[in-house]
Amino acid sequence: MSINLKGTGVALVTPFRKDGCVDFTSLQKLIEHVISGGVEYLVVMGTTGENPVLSEKEQKAILDYIVEVSEKKVPIVFGIGANNTQTVINTIQKTDFSNIDAILSATPYYNKPSQEGLYEHYKAISNVCPVPIILYNVPGRTSVNLNSETIIQLATDFSNIIAVKEASGNLDQVMQIIKNKPSDFSVISGDDTYTLPYVALGMDGVISVTANVFPKLFSNMVRASLKYDFKNAQKLHYDVLDLTNALFVEGNPSGVKAALEIIGICEKYVRLPLVPVSNFAYDKIKKHIEKLNKIK
Which positions are annotated as active-site residues? Predict the structure, then answer.
């Protein structure tokens, strides 16, 4: 079981119209934008895709559409997670994986399981999942940290657990995972801002939000980092840094959707309980985009 996770995966947003319906026309523009921009793979129905507010029917329709539009030009990673292990298992068992290359599964939120509980959760998923699994550690959203020892044990015990998207923000934990992981296990940045230093430490790339907006710039930064061309990587990193920070000031994906509206890909609408960014944040994002367009 393998998928090449080197480079940049993009955590796709789900465009909406003002009436709240999925905007498939804009979704096509986004897919074409990021693929032509050189991203290595697409991540569908992650947090950035607002999967908690999409029905099962909508999620399937979005996945099917992305598969059709992308024409197998890049691999597809599909987000399947929940805080009920059996729900994840049931979803996996009724999912058609013929066009899915891997799944991304976040740690269970709200329940706050122990490390043993997290291990058993992913063990149960591993036993039924027919494609590779990427663990997703994002304690800022789930209130539970999948620690380095548990990640390494899962990577060692289950051949279809092939990577972790690490977004703990804990530098020591990141280094312990990279240092002690199996050689064929990938570590992927879940923080756009830290991607360059993380790759310098040994990560394999990123699943990026910013790459929705500037896929070529961000992908080139990651590729330069992976080639140890840090002079070029640093320039690109600092070029995009202010925009990246601005995208998250009032929450994700509200910020990135504002940016995508500014560049003409889709409108800024999100579904409740999220709301669009303030006019102040919108104008700040716009200024950073205008600055980037001048130096590209």
Answer: 136, 165
Is residue 278 included in any domain, yes or no? no
Per-residue pLDDT reduced to its tens digit, 89-98:
999 999 999 9
Listed in sequence order, the residues at least 6 apart from 125 whose beta carbon sits closer than 8 Å to its beta carbon are: 85, 88, 89, 92, 105, 133
Asked if pLDDT for residue 33 goes beyond 70, the answer is yes
pTM over 0.85: yes
- Tell me which DSSP letter residue 56 carries: H
Q: What is the mean pLDDT of residues 167-176?
A: 97
Q: Is residue 183 part of a domain?
A: yes
DSSP state of 276: P
Q: How many domains does the chain have?
A: 1
Distance, in Å, from the CA atom of 189 to the CA atom of 285, rounded to the nearest integer, reads 23
Domain CATH code at residue 150? 3.20.20.70
**Residue 107: which domain range?**
7-227
126 in any annotated domain: yes
Residue 263, in any domain of the structure? no
Cα dist. 293→103, 139, 223, 286 in Å? 34, 34, 21, 11
d(CA 184, CA 240): 31
